[in-house]
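Running this now, will post back.
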Amino acid sequence: MPLKKTKAPLPPITWDANDLGLVWQLIAEITKHQNLKVLCGKLTKHKVSDLLEHSH
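Update: finished.
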């Protein structure tokens, strides 16, 4: 049986630093069409517009 790779813990993320800059960067990445498809599956235009309206 192969040895399990040990994973290094992620450093703490300060989401509220820089006037919530990381949060807004994350929202910008999530709302890109190619990322929405990966995160939410196949979406129709109606579903995408609903998601984008609720993210503001």
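Helices lie at 17-30, 33-40, 45-54. More later if anyone needs it.
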